[in-house]
Amino acid sequence: MARKARKRTPNRGGMAFGRNLMVLGALPLGLGGYCAIMGALTLNWPRATAAITSAETIRQTTNAENRGAGGGQEGWNTFRVLYTYRVGERDYVAGGVEPYDLGMQNSASAGNMRVLHPPGSSAKIVHDPRNPEIAYLKPGPSSAALAFTAIGLIMSLSGFWARRKATEGLGEMNAEGTTERIERA
């Protein structure tokens, strides 16, 4: 026996929720996408050899008493670096780690950077061909930009999915008479 196809009425509340989720997802998607593209453009910038003058990993901690049953401390790493490099006949000093990182660093990556780039070592950096004062130790899209892009994409696609399902009439769990419309097989 084939089930009888029935036209369901669209769920307006679910459609509004899906639209709002898509609009809210567009914010981190747009910001992260822009920062990721601008970071990817640094892969084509000219390279120079830089001397690391100072490098430190700062371990920041906070008490985690109110989070879960455990307690203890929660921490994250921040990497600060200064390096000198020469472009043409002029010397420059910079401290950029990742381009367009929005002030956020990957804690695990920051913890490893001190080992990879100790003071006195040399490293390949990239610098802006139009303004050599802008330089980065790790070219390419930053982890923060990629995270914002992924979060925005997931939110937007979830909103699109919720809106699509709401147009099919799904999501009316609490509407009057919903349980009576369930077909018994």
Automatic annotation (TrEMBL):
Annotated TM spans: 21-41, 144-162
A Pfam family the protein falls into: DUF3592
Record's keyword terms, sorted: Membrane, Transmembrane, Transmembrane helix
Domain DUF3592, chain residue ranges per copy: 56-141
Highest taxon above the source species: Bacteria
Protein name: DUF3592 domain-containing protein
Species name: Bradyrhizobium forestalis
